[in-house]
C-alpha cells in the first residue's frame, strides 16, 4: 500500500468525523444537549433490522430486507423509486447503517405528507413512529414502502480500514460505503422490483459517485447529491430507517451486554461528553474496549489508547525470522520502529469472545 493511499484513508476518516461532528454540534449544542437515544426511556419496540441479528456478540455486519410491499408485488412492471442514505458515518463507537427505501414513483410525494424528512431534524419519537407505521401490517405505508438496511459493525469497518497492517491494502470508508449501497440496490433488483430511478445522499464527490453508479446500473436514472435526504422524500425515508436502526442497535447493546450495561455511552460522537468520558474511563490496557463496538481505526480511539497508557503489543509476524528461529525477544525492545501503543486489535480475531 502506498504512502499516498494511507494518507488518503486518514483524510477520509477525519472528513467523516468532522462532517458528522458538525451536524451533531448543530443539532445538539454543548450548552443545551438533549438526552440521547440510548439514555431515553423508550418503549420496547425495535425494528427487525435489530431484532433479527442472530449472534450479536460476534459483531458481524448484517443485512435485512422487508417484504416487497403488496402494491409493488402486485405489478412488478410498475416503475419504482429508490432512495439511499446512511447513519453513523462519523461516530467512534457503534455501527454505520446504510438504509434504502423504495415505493412506486407516484407515491413518493405522499411520504412528505406523512412527515418524512432528514432524520437529523426529526425528534426521536417522530422517527420511531414513522418506522413503526412502515412495519404496521394494517397501515398504508406498509402496503406501499419497502426498505432494507445493512448494519456495518465497528469491527468490520475497522478491520477493513486497518487491512494495510497485514499488507493487503486498506479498504477505506468511502469504498465500504459505495460497495454497501451497490449491493443493496442489486439485492432489490434481484427480487424483481422494477427500480427505474435512484436518489442517493452522496459519499465523496457527487459526480464521481454518480458516474460510478450509472456505469453499474445503466438502465436506471441515478441522482447523487448532497442533502438528498432533505430534497427527496424517498431518501428521507431511507434516512429514518438508517437512523432508527443505528440508535436502537446501540440501545440494544447498551442494555444487553454486561460490559456495557449501566454505562452512559452517549451518541458515539467524539465531541459528546458522555462518549468521551466512557471512552477514556474504560480502556483495557491490552484489549482496548468492548470487542467489536469501537472503531479502532478512528484517530479518537488511537489517541485514547495512548493517553490511557495502553500497553505496546508486538506480534509474531513483526519479528524477523533467523535461520535458527526467531530473533531474541530482547532484540525487539532495542530497535523498535513502531511507536504505536496497539497497532492491531483483537477484534480481527475469528475466535468466539465471551462478553
TrEMBL record:
Its cofactor is Mg(2+); Mn(2+). Manganese or magnesium. Binds 1 divalent metal ion per monomer in the absence of substrate. May bind a second metal ion after substrate binding. Transmembrane segments: none annotated. Its EC number is 3.1.26.4. InterPro entries: RNase_H2_suA, RNase_HII/HIII, RNase_HII/HIII_dom, RNase_HII_hlx-loop-hlx_cap_dom, RNaseH-like_sf, RNaseH_sf. GO terms for biological process: DNA replication, removal of RNA primer; ribonucleotide excision repair. GO terms for cellular component: ribonuclease H2 complex. Keywords: Endonuclease, Hydrolase, Metal-binding, Nuclease. Pfam families: RNase_HII. Residues 17-53 are annotated as: Disordered. One of its GO terms (molecular function) is RNA binding. It comes from the Eukaryota. Endonuclease that specifically degrades the RNA of RNA-DNA hybrids. This is Ribonuclease. It comes from Spathaspora passalidarum (strain NRRL Y-27907 / 11-Y1). The lineage of its organism: Eukaryota, Fungi, Dikarya, Ascomycota, Saccharomycotina.
Amino acid at each position: 500500500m502506498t504512502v499516498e493511499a494511507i494518507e488518503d484513508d486518514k483524510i477520509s476518516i477525519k472528513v467523516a468525523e468532522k462532517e458528522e461532528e458538525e451536524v451533531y454540534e448543530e443539532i445538539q449544542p454543548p450548552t443545551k444537549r438533549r438526552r440521547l437515544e440510548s439514555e431515553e426511556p423508550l418503549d420496547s419496540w425495535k425494528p427487525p433490522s435489530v431484532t433479527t441479528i442472530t449472534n450479536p456478540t460476534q459483531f458481524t455486519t448484517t443485512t435485512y430486507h422487508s417484504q416487497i410491499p403488496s402494491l409493488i408485488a402486485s405489478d412488478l412492471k410498475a416503475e419504482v423509486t429508490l432512495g439511499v442514505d446512511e447513519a453513523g458515518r462519523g461516530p467512534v463507537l457503534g455501527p454505520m447503517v446504510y438504509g434504502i427505501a423504495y415505493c412506486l414513483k407516484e407515491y413518493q410525494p405522499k411520504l412528505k405528507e406523512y412527515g418524512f424528512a432528514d432524520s437529523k431534524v426529526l425528534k426521536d419519537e417522530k422517527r420511531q413512529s414513522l418506522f413503526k407505521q412502515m412495519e404496521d401490517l394494517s397501515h398504508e405505508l406498509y402496503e406501499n414502502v419497502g426498505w432494507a438496511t445493512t448494519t456495518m459493525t465497528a469491527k468490520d469497518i475497522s478491520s477493513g480500514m486497518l487491512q494495510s497492517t497485514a499488507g493487503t491494502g486498506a479498504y477505506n470508508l468511502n469504498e465500504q460505503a459505495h460497495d454497501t449501497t451497490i449491493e443493496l440496490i442489486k439485492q432489490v433488483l434481484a427480487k424483481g422490483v422494477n427500480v427505474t430511478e435512484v436518489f442517493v445522499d452522496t459519499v465523496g464527490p457527487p459526480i464521481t459517485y454518480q458516474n460510478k453508479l450509472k456505469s453499474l446500473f445503466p438502465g436506471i436514472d441515478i441522482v447523487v447529491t448532497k442533502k438528498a435526504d432533505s430534497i427527496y422524500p424517498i431518501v428521507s425515508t431511507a434516512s429514518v430507517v438508517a437512523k432508527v436502526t443505528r440508535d436502537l442497535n446501540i440501545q440494544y447493546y447498551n442494555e444487553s451486554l454486561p460490559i456495557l450495561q449501566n454505562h452512559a455511552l452517549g451518541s458515539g460522537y467524539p465531541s459528546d461528553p458522555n462518549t468521551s468520558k466512557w471512552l477514556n474511563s474504560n480502556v483495557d490496557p491490552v484489549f482496548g474496549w468492548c470487542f467489536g463496538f469501537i472503531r479502532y481505526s478512528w484517530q479518537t480511539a488511537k489517541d485514547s489508547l495512548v493517553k490511557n497508557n495502553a500497553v505496546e503489543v508486538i506480534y509474531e509476524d513483526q519479528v524477523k525470522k533467523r535461520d535458527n528461529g526467531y530473533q531474541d525477544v530482547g532484540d525487539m525492545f532495542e530497535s523498535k520502529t513502531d511507536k504505536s501503543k496497539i497497532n492491531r486489535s483483537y477484534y480481527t480475531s475469528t475466535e468466539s469472545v465471551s462478553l
